[in-house]
Amino acid sequence: MSDATLNSIKDAPDDFAVQISDQVESFIVSVAEVARGDDPDSAVPYLLLEVSQLLLAGGRLGAHEDIVPDERYEPDVGPEPDVDELRERLAALLDPVDVYSEVFDPYVPRSAPVACRISDDLADVVTDLRHGMAHYRAGRVSEALWWWQFSYLSNWGPTASAALRALQSLVAHVRLDTPLDELNGLDTDSDADGDDGKLEAEAGKVMAAEIAAPLGLKNA
């Protein structure tokens, strides 16, 4: 048997790799579909579902033993696809509930909450996932799994988890009939002290008009 054949067998995707790649690709495609804005009223619950499913894949990667790629140095995957349009479409779709407050590491004592955007989070997650997918589609399965595991622990896992909490909170406010208070100065573009922060929007009204009614949770 030739060396090329042996290498091909060695790097052939197993069930675990196929399942992870399927979940990754499904998330990338689904977020792009949501960002098109064809069904804006369902954007929040649909994103909640998709991020939840992605984090199942992330949990499997996190619980898996350390994945070691076949090559010592990561092969070049070429230029990273631009996600600015995706980010902007999501921001427009989610305005004015895009901005939320998050603590990055719950184990750091007295961590101060910071303002984040769901649109930024999802675009960043898609960037990480696409990078691994480029390796997977090139047949570098171990490299793809290593990247998805490493970036899950270092970036897209915490980022997706934060976005999930925000999305879950939005849906919970609707289902529990507790409209959001006005986002008093919560703005990612404001300075560190928040002195120049502006009122983002009357988010509670938007929740009732654009999210609750289409879900059938309230009378339109």
UniProtKB/TrEMBL annotation:
Gene3D superfamilies assigned: Protein of unknown function DUF5063
Pfam families to which the protein is assigned, alphabetical: DUF5063
Tree of life domain: Bacteria
Protein name: DUF5063 domain-containing protein
Lineage of the organism: Bacteria, Bacillati, Actinomycetota, Actinomycetes, Kitasatosporales
